[in-house]
């Protein structure tokens, strides 16, 4: 049985970022399938820390947005929304130019929680630059 919500498309997800942080950072969703969402972000100066390395928060923003949008696309029927209750990120490398890509994969898609893993890579060569995991709490309408 598919958990993927038909009304959530790549276009809907990309429009949702708009004037919010994902839109400002240039985060772009590229492929949505059952249990998976792929995204990317072109690296610009605004993504760097003053030490001229890619800021960890930029990587986390890409991973967290991708996992969050994946959660939205996989909400159980009748659920109202979700919120992140925990996240962890391990940083393995950086990029100095080009783009970074992310693939989020659902590990647990339950009624009350979802757990998503994401791998962030250098878009040019596929080298891993971060491993990310988050837990989402599913929000239900109040009775």
Task: Tell me what the structure shows.
The chain has 143 residues and is α+β, with helices and mostly antiparallel strands. It has one domain (10-139): Hotdog Thioesterase (Thiol Ester Dehydrase, Chain A), CATH 3.10.129.10. 22% of the residues lie in helices and 41% in strands. It is built from 3 helices and 6 strands; from the N terminus they run ααββαββββ. The chain has helices spanning 10-17, 21-25, 56-73; strands at 27-33, 36-42, 81-91, 99-109, 113-122, 128-139. Strands 1-2-4-5-6-3 form a 6-stranded antiparallel sheet. Strand 4 (99-109) and strand 5 form a beta hairpin. The mean pLDDT is 95.
Give the full name of the CATH homologous superfamily.
Hotdog Thioesterase
Distance between the termini: 27 Å
Shape: globular
**Are there runs of 5+ residues with pLDDT below 50, and where?**
none
Annotated CATH architecture: Roll
Q: In percent, how helical is the residue content?
A: 10-25%
Total count of helical runs of at least 4 residues: 3
Class from secondary-structure proportions:
alpha+beta
H-E string: HHEEHEEEE
CATH topology, by name, is Thiol Ester Dehydrase, Chain A
**Mind describing the biggest β-sheet?**
6 strands, antiparallel
* pLDDT averaged residue by residue: 95
Strand order of the largest sheet: 1-2-4-5-6-3
**How much of the residues is beta strand, in percent?**
35-45%
Based on DSSP secondary structure assignment, what is the total number of beta strands?
A: 6
Number of domains: 1
């Amino acid at each position: 049985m598919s958990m993927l919500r038909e009304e959530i498309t790549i276009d809907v997800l990309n429009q949702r970022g708009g004037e919010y942080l994902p839109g400002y950072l240039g985060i772009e969703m590229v492929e949505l399938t059952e249990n998976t969402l792929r995204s990317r972000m072109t690296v610009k100066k605004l993504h760097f820390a003053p030490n001229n390395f890619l800021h960890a928060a930029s990587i986390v923003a890409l991973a967290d947005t991708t996992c969050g949008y994946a959660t939205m696309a996989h909400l159980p029927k009748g659920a109202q929304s979700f919120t992140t209750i925990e996240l962890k990120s391990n940083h393995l490398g950086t990029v100095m130019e080009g783009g970074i890509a992310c693939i989020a994969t659902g590990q647990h898609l339950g009624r009350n929680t979802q757990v998503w893993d994401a791998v962030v890579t250098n878009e040019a060569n596929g080298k891993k630059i971060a491993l990310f995991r988050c837990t989402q709490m599913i929000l239900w309408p109040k009775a």
